[in-house]
Fold these 2 entries.
Entry 1:
Amino acid sequence: MTDTLSRMLASRDWLMADGATGTNLFNMGLSSGDAPELWNVEKPDNIRALYRGAVESGSDIFLTNSFGCNAARLKLHDAQNRVRELNRVAAELGRDLADTAGREIVVAGSMGPTGEIMEPMGPLSYSSAVEIFHEQAEGLKEGGVDVLWVETISAPDEFKAAGEAAKLAGMPWCGTMSFDTAGRTMMGVTATDLAEMVDKLPYPPLAFGANCGVGASDLLRTVQGFAAAGTERPIIAKGNAGIPRYEDGHIHYDGTPELMADYAVLARDCGARIIGGCCGTTPEHLKAMREALETRPAGPRPSLDEIAGKLGGFSSASDGTGEAAPAPARNRRRRR
Amino acid sequence: MAEEEDDLILSELPDDELVPQMGDDLYDGLKDEVAEGVQILLDRGWAPYRILTEALVSGMTVVGNDFRDGILFVPEVLQAANAMKAGMGLLKPLLAETGAPKMGKMVIGTVKGDIHDIGKNLVGMMMEGAGFDVVDLGINTDADEYIDALAREQADILGMSALLTTTMPYMKIVIDTMAEKGIRDDYIVLVGGAPLNEEFGKAIGADAYCRDAAVAVETAKSFVARRHNQMPAG
C-alpha cells in the first residue's frame, strides 16, 4: 500500500476533500456550454487558481478539472480527439501545485459520467464504457494523479466500468454516486445497493460514497445508509452547499459557510472519513469546514431529526430502503 | 415467492382481461407482448384511438405514477416507454388515417449552453407514451430555434430543460423573447431540470415547473384540457 491516499487514510481519522469545480470556474468567467476542460490548455492560470483555492483552504485532496473529459462528453465540443492531452494537462497542473504545497496533498483525477444511458435501456455497451474511461484514466495517470476519482455516477454498470478502467490503468481509485431521486440515484440505486456492490467488485475502490445529489441533509442520510450496511471501507461525503436559488437573474447555492461547517462535522459523526463539498462549495466554505473539523470534537452518530434541525429538511420521506420506502400497489400477473 | 402461472396466451383472453394484462406488460416493459396485444385488439375491431387511450395511455399512467412516487426508476421507465413505442408503431399510421383526436404537440429541447439530455429525452418518451406528438430539438437550443419550431410544428406546448444552474436562466430569455413577439400566451410553457424548482418557474414566467417526467405529462394533460375548455364551442 504505497499510494498517498492509502497512507494518509492509515494515519489520519479524517481527510478533507475539495469543493466545487464547475461553480467556481463559472465564477471566474467560464461561459455555460463551454467545456471547462479546454481551460486546462487555454487558461491554465485559472485552473491553477481553482486548485490553489482548495489547497489554501485546507483540503487534503483536490480533484482535477477533468470531470467531463471523456470522449463521450468531449465530442459535444468536437474535442473527442483530445482526451489524453486534456486529462494529462489537468493532472500536471495539479501535480505541480501539490508537489510545492509544503504538506502532503492527494491529486485525484476526476472522472464524471459519460452522459450516455447503458445497454439494454440505452446505446452504451459495457465494453465501450470501459474503453471510454480507460482512455481518460491513462491521461490522468500520465499527468501524475495519485488516485482516480470517479464521481456523480448513477448507473451500477457505469460505476463498474470505471472501476475496470482503473484496473486496466493500474491505478487506485475512489468512486461516488449521486443520490438525487427520492434517496436513490437516477437509476434507482440505494445507499445499501452501492455499499454491497462495492464490496463485491473484483478491483474495489480505496473509498466510496456520495457526491452532489440534492442538499447536505439528504447526502448525510445516504452516508448513514452506507455505514449501516456494515462496510469497513472508508466513506466519502461530498455534498452540495445547499440548494440552488434563483435571485435577481442569477443562481446561488443557499448553503452558508456556517452550514457547511455543521455539515462537515455531522458527516464525520455519520461515519464519513473523507469529507468535502460539491456544487456551490467555495474556498470560504472549505475554510469553515476545515476549522470545524479541527476544533469541534467528534460526536455520536446524529439522528435524522438532528441533521434536519441543523441542515434543513429532507427532499423525500425515505432513502428508498426500509419500511417507509414506497412499494408498488400492483402485483405482476405474468411470468416474465 | 409463489410459483407463478404459465405464460398466458394473449389471444385467448377476453377484452376485459387483455386490456389490464397489456397494462401489466407495459409496466414490465415487454414490448413484443404489448405490440401483440395492440394487434389483437385491432383484429377484434377496436378503433385505434380507443386502443391508444384505454389500453396504452392508461397503462403508462400507472408507470408514470409509480415513477413519480419513487417506486420505479429511470431504467424501468425507459423499458416501459420502449414497449409503448412498439404499440404506437402499429397505431400511429392508423390514428392519422382515422382522423383521431390529438392529445397535443410538444416542442422540446435542452436550452442554449447546456448539453445534458437524459432528462429531456425521458420527458419526450413519457409524453409520447401519453399520446402526445413530440418534436425534439436536441441540446443547446437557442430562442429562435424554439420559436421557429413552435410555429412550424403548430405546437401547443414548449418544453425546456436545463441541468446547470448557469444555463437555466436562459429559459427566461426564451420566454421574454416570446413575449416581445406577442406569442407567449399562444403556448403552454413547461420547464424542468435538476436544479430548477417551482419558485424559479414562476420567477421566469413559465406556466409550470415539472419535477420529473411523470409530472410533466400530468401537467401537460391538465393545461391542454383547460385550453380546450376555454375554446369557443363548435
Entry 2:
Amino acid sequence: MDNIIEIKNLSFSYKDSEGNLHPALHDINLNFERGTYTAVLGHNGSGKSTLAKLINMVLTREDGEIDGSITVCGKEVTGDLTDDEAYDIQCRIGMVHQNPDNQIVATTVEEDIAFGPENLGTDPVEIRKTVTEMLKAVGMEGHEKSAPHRLSGGQKQRIAVAGVLAMHPECIIFDESTAMLDPQGREAIMNTIENLHKKGDVTIITITHYMNEATDADRVIVLNHGEVFMDGTPEEIFTQVDKLHSVSLDVPQVTELFYKLRQAGKYDGELPLHTEEGAAALKELITRTRG
Amino acid sequence: MIRDITLGQYFPGNSPIHKIDARAKIIMTLILIVAVFVASSGFSFALLFIVSATVFLMSRISFKTLVKGLKPIVFVLIFTTLFQIFFTRTGTLLVDWWIIKIYSNGIIYAIKMFVRIIVLISTTSVLVSYTTSPIVLTDGIEGLMTPLAKIKVPVHDFALVMSIALRFIPTLLEETEKIMSAQKARGTDFSTGSLMKRARALLAVFVPLLASAVRHAFELADAMICRGYRGGKGRTKLNKMKFRFFDFIWLLLSAAVLAGVILLNYVPIDPLNMIFGQ
C-alpha cells in the first residue's frame, strides 16, 4: 500500500499572542492511500481545517505546538525541512479554500489559472496548453478573458480548482470549498471532484460539514473535539445513525428518513445513502404495504 | 449594479491607438509631454494641436468622452487663460477701458497656455487612460521598470501589489455595499445630520471593511503560497508583451514630433505675433 500522507500520534495546540495553548488535535493516527477519495467530517472546531493546514504546512511550529509526525510524499513535514523541500511539498499538495474570492489572484481567468505554473517557471506555450486543458476539466471553456468579479460564486470556485489543478498536484485538499456556494455551485464543484476521482490519478481529501457530500467518497473520517471519532466507508459510518447523533452530527436526509421508518417498525432493510437507492427502496416499500 | 463597474476610464476598442504596446504608449506620452513644455512659437503649437487631434481621431473615442475628461480642469483652464489676458503688461496695448488693459502679448500667452493644457490632457488621456486597460498598463509599467530591478528596486512586487489592488476593487466595493446595508438595518443613518454625524456613521462602514480587507489579505497570502508563489524569481509569464515593428514606428513618429517642435521654435516669424500686430 502506497500512502501519500501518514499521520502518527499527532497532537496540535494553537499558541495565542500571550503564549497560552489551545489544543486543537489530539493523538491522531491516519493514513491516506494514494488515489483515494476521503471525506473528513466534523463540527466547527473539531479540528478538521487544522489538520488540512498542518498537512499543507500553512500551520507550522511557529503557530503552535506539534507532537507526533506527518509524512507527506515520504517527507516528514513536521520535522526540519529546507525551504526547497517545503516548497516542493507545497506544490505537490494543492488546496482549495472556502472563499473563492480570496483565492483568485489575477484580473483575468486565464492569468489566474496560469499563476501556479508561472510560479513554477513553466514555458508559456506549455502554460497555454495547461490553461485550456484545466478550463475544460472544470467545464469553464470560453471564459479565458472573463474578469473574475463578473463570475458567480460556483464559477469562481471552479476557476480556483482549475488554478490548483494547473500545478498538477498529487493530492488536492478541498477545505470547505462548497460552504459559501449556492446549491448549483455546490453541485458543480461536487461533479468536478467526482470527475477528478474517476480519472484516479489524484488523491482527494474533502473537508465538509455537508453529509450529502461525503456519501460518494471511498472513506469517511469523523473528527470530534480534535480526535478521530469514526473512520470507515460511507456505508459503515452513516448507518450508525445513533452514534452520529450523539455528537450532534446529521446523516444524509434519505438515510434519516429510512432510519425513522425503521424505528417506527415499517422498514427492516439496509439504510440507503443515495437518493436514487432511497427512491427505489421507498417504491418497493409502498408496493409491499399495498399488496 | 456594482458587478458591472469599469475599472479606470478604459474604453475597449480595436483602433490603431489601442493596438500600440503599453510600454511604447507610456514613452510616447512622456515625449509628447516634453514637447508640450518645450514648444514656444505659434508654429510648434499648431503642430502639437494637429498631432493630438490626429491621435484623438485615430483612437475613435467619442468627442463627448474627451470633453467629459476635460471637465475637471475647466476651472484651471479658464483661470489661467484670464490671468494671462488681464495681467500681462507687455506688447501693444489693444484694449484700454476703465481699469481693464489688454495687451497683445496677453492674448498670445493665453492662446499658448490654452493649447498647452488642452493638448497635454487630451493626449495623455487618449493615449493612456482611454485606450489602455489598467491590467495592460500595469504590465507596461512593470516592463519599463524592469531595468531598475538590477539596482534592487522590487519592481515585480510593486506590479503584483498593483494588479492585486485592481483585482480586489470590485470585491471590496461589493463588500462595502453589503456592510452599508447591514449597518442601515441596524439603524445607522448615512444621509442626514451634520457633517460630523455623517462622518461618524461612515466609521461603522470603514472599520468592518478594513477588518475584512485584512482577512482577505491573509487568506490570499495562504492561497498564493499554496500555489507555489515565492517572489518574482524564476517566474514565467503566460502573456508576454510583444514590442513590434509597428510600435517602434510610433516611437519614431513621436520623437519626430518633438524634433519638429524644437525646429519650429527657431522659425523667425511667429504667426501669432503677425496676427496681433507686432
